[in-house]
Design a protein that fits this description.
Two copies of one chain form a homodimer. By secondary structure, the first copy, chain A, is of the alpha+beta class. Chain A is built from nine helices and five strands. The first copy, chain A, has helices spanning 12-20, 26-34, 49-60, 79-86, 94-99, 116-119, 136-160, 173-180, 211-214, and strands at residues 71-76, 102-109, 164-168, 186-195, 215-217. A four-stranded antiparallel sheet of chain A has the order 1-2-4-3. In chain A, helix 3 (49-60) packs across helix 7 (136-160). Chains A and B meet through helix 1, helix 2, helix 3, strand 1 and helix 4 of A and helix 1, helix 2, helix 3, strand 1 and helix 4 of B. Strand 5 of chain A pairs parallel with strand 1 (71-76) of chain B.
Chain lengths: 218, 218
């Protein structure tokens, strides 16, 4: 192709304009943030597995440190699985978890670094930063932080696909880990009910900080 | 109003249909997840403060355990602030951070529990679960987990408003905390450049896990 037939390269302002045009509309922002509320009860309707798998595929694309992807997820949907899960819950979390079609357990793989050569091939030796008993505590903290990021992406991806999410911290962590991660290398962080929420059971929204109370420009 | 003029209550299937209709379209999913990439360079254009404040307002609505909201954010944009920040970075993170119009420091307030009576008025005594020296380690872990959730919401809210985000873990944490959080109660977790990314500098996307490698239904 001759130089004359090529389009001129876009200017920086044109590129920035195109990037700004990626922004979501108000309706999408309402779905993700403004109108989304923690579900405290669920309508008796299932969530198809393909929808859960689509949430996963979106969330898995989100950034983690050195692409380590330490999140492990158990999706509890069978009566037998629910029974094992509910035995570990605080009393206040039992009824809504019974009502939810599926409950996600978000957990961190403390041996995540074994996958570094495959997931981060540009720096396979990053694995060595976490290998060895004396680095186990640093590895666990790294796994918890990055798996927590991924679980947040998962919850927002679930909202993005039209579901309601009810995250919960009230459970017996050692008991849940023994029931679902018996080999000891995967540690639960929090759990979340997923489904179509019963809006009559949502609590009033609690206060939030103003920007200038918790953030500052320097 | 007479009973006759009232609309019949919607059926469960109608409510679920309305909820499913909240789902984002493909374009929004591309902005948030599918086409979003970690920025590794930035176009020389500013990000207005009101856009950062809007990101904050959206992200602040996301769920945290007992609405504790432990995230604290410093937005580094001045030459003096950038200089202090860059002194703490790994060499590989310096150039892109110089180019970014603003860099967010995501940090956790380990004394978050002092705000529980205001933020979670239905259970002000939840504060006591973290008060006292013997509970300091549990409080710090709780703060880190919930602040990490909030930082993830912030990064996705930034993408939702059309920005590119470049999260980084490569910095000297004690040095950064000494420079930006000298009173010792706030602990940095990670940092992220914000702006309009230079797409010519993005790295190829690394592999991801398949669903069945890291998730399971039970």
């Amino acid at each position: 192709m001759s130089a004359q037939s090529e389009l001129p390269a876009p200017s920086i302002d044109e590129i920035v304009g195109q990037k700004a045009a990626r922004a979501l509309g108000e309706r999408a922002l309402r779905t993700l943030f403004v109108e989304a509320r923690t579900a405290n009860g669920f309508l008796p309707r299932p969530v198809p597995r393909h929808l859960i798998e689509r949430i996963f595929e979106l969330a898995e694309l989100g950034p983690t440190s050195a692409n380590t992807l330490p999140l492990r997820i158990v999706l509890v949907e069978t009566p037998e699985g629910k029974e094992r899960l509910i035995a570990t819950l605080s009393p206040g979390n039992v009824e809504k978890t019974k009502a939810a079609p599926v409950t996600a357990i978000f957990a961190a793989d403390t041996k995540f670094f074994e996958h570094v050569p495959r997931l981060f091939p540009q720096a396979p030796k990053f694995k060595d930063a976490f290998t060895g008993e004396e680095k186990a505590q640093a590895a666990t903290q790294f796994a918890l932080t990055n798996a927590t990021l991924q679980g947040a992406y998962f919850m927002l991806a679930a909202r993005a696909l039209g579901l309601d999410v009810g995250p919960m911290g009230g459970f017996d962590k050692p008991a849940l880990d023994a029931a679902f991660f018996p080999d000891g290398t995967v540690k639960s962080i929090w759990i979340a009910n997923l489904g179509y929420g019963d809006d009559t059971k949502v609590f009033p929204r609690n206060p939030r900080f103003r920007f200038d109370e918790v953030a500052r420009f320097v």
